[in-house]
Each structure stands twice: as C-alpha cells, then as structure tokens.
Amino acid sequence: MAITQLSAFLENVPGKLCDAVAAITGAGVNIRALSVADTKDFGILRVIVSDIEKTKAALDEQTIVRETPVIAVKMNDKAGALNDILSILKSADINVEYVYAFTGAVQGNAYVVLRVDDQEQAEATLAKNNIHTLNDEDINDYLK
After folding, report:
1. Phi, psi for 122 (deg, rounded to 5)
2. What integer pLDDT is reported at residue 142 of this predicted model?
3. Residue 101, exposed/middle/buried by CB under 10 A (0-12, 13-18, 19+)?
4. pLDDT, tens only, 89-124
5. What is the distance between the alpha carbons of residues 98 and 14, in angstroms, rounded to a whole number?
6. Which of 89, 108, 116, 122 sits a CA distance of 20 to 30 A from 98?
7. 71 vs 3: CA distance, rounded Å
8. CB atoms within 10 A of CB 120
C-alpha cells in the first residue's frame, strides 16, 4: 500500500519555504510529515498531507508539484525499530533512496516514509515480515 507524497521544487532563497507552508496552511491542510532536501539553487519540499488535491492547488501557483508513491510504515517508537525495517529491506536487496520519520498522536507509535527502488517488492517483503504499511486513507485515521 503506497501513500502519496507531494514534492515541490522551491528556489533556495529566504522565505520560499515559509511561503509554501503558508499556502498549504491557508488551504486548510494539515501537514502530517515534512522533509526538505537542498542544493545550492533549489530545495525539494516533500510532504505528506491531509488533503492532496487542496495542497496541489495551493502550491501549483508557486512551484512545480509532483506526486510520488512512497511507503509509510507504522513502527514502535523505540530504539531499534527503524533498524529492524531497514534490515528486512537490506536482506531482500531493496535500495532505500531516501527516508524520513514522524510520530503520531498515539504514544508509542512512530512512522517512517521510505522511497525505494522497487516498491512492489518492498511492500511484499514488509508484509511477509508482518510489517504494517499505510495507505492514503490510513494517514488521517492513524494520526488523529
């Protein structure tokens, strides 16, 4: 089960990140998870949000927005939980291209977002190892 991540390409100058977050907020959308990667000239804002279409509409006026399927994994909020997941993927020879994590409203739960080179194989491998992945509908339910 993939979730939808939105990626927005932002010029790497003061205020652009603030403007993008303000646009999302102004659309009444809750940011569930966020990551920013940067280069000298631009940054990539990656977000998991409560409303994909509203976010795309809000950001389309400012920048290019792309949808990317990623895997979100629910895990225990304890030392070693991420290592367990990464070890399972490693043993299946699945490359993790990038990762970021966030916590939910329920104490003891954490979530990790993974972009991998073979999503179908990664999801099957995780399921085989009783690792729960989320879909877009789960995001709002789990994070209340």
Report:
1. -65, -45
2. 59
3. middle
4. 999 999 999 999 887 766 777 889 999 999 999 999
5. 25
6. 108
7. 6
8. 9
Residue 81, CA atoms < 13 Å, CB-side half-sphere = 16
Residues 74, 76, 81, 84, Cα dihedral to 10°: -60
Find the largest Cα–Cα distance for the chain: 45
pLDDT at 131: 93
Structure tokens at 44: 């990539």
Instruction: Name the CA radius of gyration of the chain, rounded.
Output: 16
For position 90, what pLDDT does the model report? Answer: 97
CA distance 60 to 125: 36
Other CB atoms within 10 Å distance of the CB of residue 76: 12
* Residue 131: closest CA among 78, 70, 71, 68: 71
Pick out the chain residues at pLDDT < 50.
none
**Which candidate, 7, 16, 137, 9, places its Cα nearest to that of 72?**
137
State how far the Cα of 132 lies from the Cα of 3, in Å rounded to an integer. 13
